[in-house]
Design goal:
Length: 91
Amino acid sequence: MTTGIAGKVNTGGQMRCFLANNMPDKSIIINYKLCDFKQCIDGICRAKSECEKKVLKQEAPFEPPYVITSLCSGCNKCIAECHSNALEKSR
């Protein structure tokens, strides 16, 4: 199994990262037009902190988060935690 990010898809301000040969049916999408991670405590994405599977990643505080879709179980806890309403279910 591949362990690194194999690709990124960016359409209209939404970005998904995925692992090769491991595309899940359940995942989330970040709408970067709505994402205001700078308002999160200490620049750490609140939704990232809520996710038990560590689906959301940030390179550093005050950097935009990204999604590792292969880890997502579809629980949607992160969607409820995002106060910018920037997260949504993948369709």
